[in-house]
Amino acid sequence: MISTRELTKDFVVSRTETVHAVRGISLDVEPGELVAVLGPNGAGKTTTLRMLTTLIAPTSGTAKVAGYDVSTDPGQVRRQIGYVGQGNGAGHSQRVRDELYGQGVIYGLDSRSAKRRSEELLESLELGELARRKVSELSGGQRRRLDVAMGLVHAPGLLFLDEPSTGLDPQNRANLWDHILRMREQYSMTIVLTTHYLDEADSMAERVVVVDHGEVIADDTADALKAKLAGDQLLLTVAPGNLARAAELTEQLLGARDVVAQGDQISVRVANGPEALPELIGAAQRTGVPVAAAQVIRPTLDDVFLNLTGRSLREADANGKAAA
Ligand SMILES: Nc1ncnc2c1ncn2[C@@H]1O[C@H](COP(=O)(O)OP(=O)(O)OP(=O)(O)O)[C@@H](O)[C@H]1O
Ligand SMILES: [Mg+2]
Prior knowledge:
The protein is of the alpha/beta class. It has 12 helices and 14 strands.
């Protein structure tokens, strides 16, 4: 469905400054996949999506989308896709229902289907009560829901969503996901989305592409990334005065890394927490170290990013925002 080779975008900002926004991304997406692109502010996510949706031309490299080359056949590409940009800001003085219906018609739906699809979307994105409001009067979150509805109205085979859930409250995030997953099922849609919500990428996408400084630095299922690149964390709380001995035992665990002893607690990373924990408790018992509590903490995608880059995704985002 998507195939890019060495896709690159440089922005020439001034005579002395060029931003290398995307540096040679090669990516393949199969029909029906749901791919989440993750990365800190300024990583190149939006720029990549904008090239794939033909809104900007690549500096070099190639991209085929739905069978067509984005550089030589942009019109064909556009006909196959839906795109919800980051902070799109649909329309102005139109009413919500008309805006959505109009979008459906522009995308080639007949009047009846356009009406039916808009009503479905108004309901599932909780826009029903707002249907007669002017677009310009909506709140940020309401407007975001309308943006998403606009991208979904013609049920495209390939959908690009740039931070669809940013700014939505938890209830509406859940509704949006319900809708996306249902649409995907119903129309066998392929979906590529960006998000800053790690939990979302983790639970919804079966594939996570991590981008940093314009490059893909990891690409796999969330589970595989976590197992390969982060590992489980064990937390062991011991009775006072036993910390040093407990730390020694922890260091001896197979594959133990990042051992940190603090207060009455030891933290360690291992490949397989549920296997390592009984081993550690057993060793403590044999050597007479009293264990007060023990716990396995499964890694998050943030741990994956931390491991790949030495930065936390949250910190990286905060820094990106501060710099922007
Ligand atoms: N039109 C432009 N002109 C100059 N630089 C640009 C332009 N568009 C993007 N950039 C730069 O390219 C880099 C990548 O930006 P991009 O918007 O793709 O990041 P992103 O991963 O989508 O970030 P965010 O999470 O903040 O949305 C940034 O350094 C940005 O400042
Ligand atoms: Mg972006």
